[in-house]
From TrEMBL, chain A:
It comes from Breoghania corrubedonensis. Signal peptide: none annotated. The keyword Zinc does not apply. Its main location: membrane. GO terms for molecular function: transmembrane transporter activity. This is Monosaccharide ABC transporter membrane protein (CUT2 family). The keyword Cell membrane applies.
From TrEMBL, chain B:
This is Monosaccharide ABC transporter ATP-binding protein (CUT2 family). It is found in: Cell membrane. SMART domains: AAA. Residues 3-238, 255-498 form the ABC transporter domain. It comes from the Bacteria. Gene3D superfamilies: P-loop containing nucleotide triphosphate hydrolases. It comes from Breoghania corrubedonensis. InterPro entries: AAA+_ATPase (IPR003593), ABC_carbohydrate_import_ATPase (IPR050107), ABC_transporter-like_ATP-bd (IPR003439), ABC_transporter-like_CS (IPR017871), P-loop_NTPase (IPR027417). Keywords: ATP-binding, Cell membrane, Membrane, Nucleotide-binding, Repeat, Sugar transport, Translocase, Transport. It is a peripheral membrane protein. Belongs to the ABC transporter superfamily. One of its GO terms (molecular function) is ATP binding. Its main location: membrane.
Amino acid sequence: MTVLRRIAPQLVTLAALVALVTLFFPDFLRIEVVDGRFVGPVMDIAKRGAQVGLLTVGMTLVVATRGIDLSVGTVMAISGAVAAWAITHDVSLAGTLALALTAGAAAGLWNGCLVALVGIQPIVATLILMTSGRGIAQLITEGRILTFSNEGLAFLGSGDLLGIPVPALIWFAAALAIALLMRRTALGLLVEAVGVNRSASALAGVNAAVLLVAVYVASGLCAGLAGIVSAADIRGADANNAGLWLELDAILAVVIGGNSLLGGRFSIAASLIGALIIQTIDTGILLAGFPSEYNLVIKAALVLVILVLQSPNLAHQWRTVGRAARRRREGVPLSAKAQGQ
Amino acid sequence: MLLTIRSLTKTFPGTTALDAVDFDLAAGEIHALLGENGAGKSTLIKCLTGAYSRDGGEISLEGRPISPRSTSKAQELGIGTVYQEVNLLANLTVAQNLTFGREPTRFGMVDARAQKRQAEAMLEGYGLDIDVSRNLAAYSVAVRQIIAIARAVALSGKVLILDEPTASLDAREVETLFDVVRGLRDRGLGIVFVSHFLDQVFALTDRVTVLRNGRRVASERTADLNRVRLIEHMLGHALEDEVIAHGKTHDAAAAQRPELLRFENFGRRGHVEPFDLAVGRGEVLGLAGLLGSGRTESAELLFGVVEAHSGAARDENGTFDLSSPRAAVAAGFGYAPEERKEDGIVADLSVRENIALALQAHRGWLRRLSGAEQARLANNYIARLDIRTFGPEQPVGELSGGNQQKVVLARWLAMNPRFLILDEPTRGIDVGAHAEILRLIQKVTAEGMSILIISSELDELIAVSDRVIVVRDRRHVAELTGREITSDTIVRAIAAPQAGRQNSGEEAA
Ligand SMILES: Nc1ncnc2c1ncn2[C@@H]1O[C@H](COP(=O)(O)OP(=O)(O)OP(=O)(O)O)[C@@H](O)[C@H]1O
Ligand SMILES: [Mg+2]
């Protein structure tokens, strides 16, 4: 119930956006069954949204601790490169996945230690890996696009299970798992407490440093998973372009999800809807048939409108307006009636 | 009238903080604004300065209606304010804080030398010997409080508002502040003074206005009031028994208590000199001393906020680790720190989550306290400490200052530690709740909890302590027990460590 109230603004935004896109592209919500697979723009969004969606899950936790992780796009490139390298060097599929995820976790560990133990500001700490990480990925791929043909790995990027694209399933499963981990254990509360007031939390006995490191590791793992999906999708690791600028989309999704960059309360569900909103904008613009040079401008305009409508200041003013209107209705019923007639 | 407020109304979702309140301030008077925690004092002040927008009512200054939209606009009108939660910028220097917004410039650039001079001039008369070019973060709460006051005084041409300015000052500093305030009154300023120290109200103020549940219930000349009547106005009923009045009877036959813990040669260079301390089961230890004498530093050392360089902590099972707050919590310690806003509350989280936090951290993340259990804890302490909130789900940051303090206390009581360290636990707490908290301390110690309490209020310390340690220049210089615990001996020990030590030596012999 409370969850529903928390994500209501995001749901409304998504619904409005879907309605808008449907105006331009009437078949937007249509889903057909082709060869036992569901196809249609909505399925496309669920699949393409997987990469940003996965990043968003980890980013939400990092933002909840008043941090930010700029390196996730780069970490995607690294883990994709590791996966492609491993699979082309006859490592088993399980081993490949383990290696790629370990690379993501290691990157997160590095970030987390810089932030929690060394005390570097998150934006600076993660910037280091953001700028240098692509070099690491290039070293692994030796500067080429490292292609592979392993069907098992490719399945993670382009396969279907029960008619649903596998990346979408991975995305939702990861989000569900982490959301449950946060809310069924005390982790969610402790993360929020550290995000609001680290010093008070530490004095209350919360292991703030370890918690911070863990949050960045989680973000690295999510990015690692996103990197695998990305490489699997194109059957190759592209160190230069995998995950490029996606960290910004992930941050945007977290913000559209109504999570404060100042840390504290977070909602993974709301962030996920934020990611869906962004992907819907991207896909919608394409479907609506605008010339591609307009894409970024339209996207920026839509994002701006959404953020302004959701801003707390405006919400406050709406409430005041609503209260005034109610008072007018209740306070002067006679004249209101007279006006009505 | 210098300042008149008519029918000031302010509602928050769930509460009416101010309900048609009238308030008059004359030029050349010191006017006390009193009331229980959550009565609406700070809200009245914030509506007056424009920090909050009011829902209704008129405010006029010298007959002209005013509606400042922010603290700085209020300052331009001649209203200087020190809010309850001092809002200075810790990462600027003292001089920058003092001259913020009015920096002296030279050729369009800030003139650092003039700024320093100006800052030093502003601090003159407060008996503060500090380096104004150092960052504010280097100084204690008390010093920050005085800096905030000095800044507000310099900015207030007509009205000066002080919201609990003396909460973290000791007797000497309070006197200095009072001299400054009286001087301003004589210059014709109107001064609003909020405090829970009724003695200070009687010593300083000319008139008193009392708020209760957001309504004005009385406005009288201070001279026409007495303590009992004033408390009745505030609480709406008489205070049944004030613990301070009949606290512990300090007879010589102080109970022999089984020892719970012992700190041996415990100390840290540059922080607190090594000391020995034994704590009995169910004992209340008081820590007395001037500000900056090493009281808070001792507490931080005992809780592992800073690690000890020497010594060990021991209980019946041998030595144990106290190298971090986590280790201290694991050893059954609790610590309610002095700086409530920075180190105490987690403002955005609910009352329920704040109260459950220490217990939850102690249990570990895997053993989550269910929402129902947390709510049960919270409701229990909301009732026991009379926390004024519209429910356990309200964010703590929305509570009044005194109620936030109660939440921090509840957090540790809920954990039921064996040794609880309380640094100024009753700061900002009203008379009714004050008595309640002292009673609670007596109750939990009777059940076996040991408490170390730091307080600038000697009466309070004397009322609850079985033993008083006097700290001076970062050393534990005297230990007073039984009949020695009087304000006289404590004050003497604080001033002249030798006297105190001899005194206790004689008793022991
Ligand atoms: N920002 C806010 N949002 C919601 N409620 C608030 C807010 N600020 C204050 N209140 C409520 O308004 C009431 C009055 O609070 P206020 O801070 O004025 O009390 P006070 O008299 O200053 O108490 P204290 O002595 O504890 O400082 C309280 O019930 C408090 O919970
Ligand atoms: Mg207040």
